[in-house]
Amino acid sequence: MGVPLDSREEQAVEVIDRLEEAYPDSTISLDYSNRLELLVAVVLSAQCTDERVNGVTADLFETYRTPEDYARASEAELADAIYGITFHNNKAGYLKGIGRIVAEEHDGEVPDTMSALTDLPGVGRKTANVVLQHGHDIVEGIVVDTHVRRLSRRLGLTEEERPERIEADLLPVVPESKWQVFTHLLIDHGRATCTARNPDCSDCVLEDVCPSSKLDHDVDLASGESWD
User: Fold this and answer.
1) Which of the residues 91, 96, 145, 214 is marked catalytic?
2) pTM
3) Which of 63, 101, 198, 205 stands 20 to 30 A from 115 (CA)?
4) Which residue in the list 59, 107, 119, 126 is annotated as catalytic?
């Protein structure tokens, strides 16, 4: 029966412990070899699958190796290079703008502060957190993507709806040493079991502590709607 633990803090620790056992190698799934490639890949991954991004960046990173390469390219050229990525025309503009700013204002180096990163085109707090964590080994927040939003609500860890508010709500609940892996664990579980439309509650390692379990409850706390 899906009954969460008494406090959100206890619930978070239990979720992390179980998911770490289920996904011992959980980490970022984007392919990159340096900070610029990481930044580009994360910008492209917005509303797009990591698998598709990795397929496009395999060739992209062979052609565009420096911020100046992106800055010199036309938006049309970049859009063609990332064709197949969701919103490729908009993201082409982001890449060109990122290249120019990184080259001109940061000596060609991807910045290492939240404020400088979020000043870049197409970079919000989620993207900046990923770049800080995996590019600079700086962990100052929790990355809230669509999987983290869905699972953290389903599991009763937050009732907030917007990513920024979800992150702020989770920070005092999730142990700081687990902020980075928490995201990857929820992403892995969201892809494998706790999917958006048809979660496999009968084969879920968290079912007995999940207040959204279809086996026991009528409402999906992620959406607030009744299960079909």
Assistant:
1) 145
2) 0.92
3) 63
4) 126
Q: What is the pLDDT of residues 73-121, one digit of tens each?
A: 999 999 999 999 999 999 999 999 999 999 999 999 999 999 999 999 9
- Binding-site residues for [4Fe-4S] cluster sit at 194, 201, 204, 210
Query: Would residue 126 show up in a list of annotated catalytic residues for this protein?
Result: yes
With tokens 């980490």, the residue in question is: 27
CATH of 35-135, one of 1.10.760.10, 1.10.340.30, 1.10.472.10, 1.10.468.10: 1.10.340.30
Closest CA relative to residue 142, chosen from 154, 130, 156 = 130
Q: Over the Cα atoms of the chain, what is R_g?
A: 19
The class of domain 8-26+143-222 in CATH terms is mainly alpha
The reply to whether 178 belongs to the active site is no
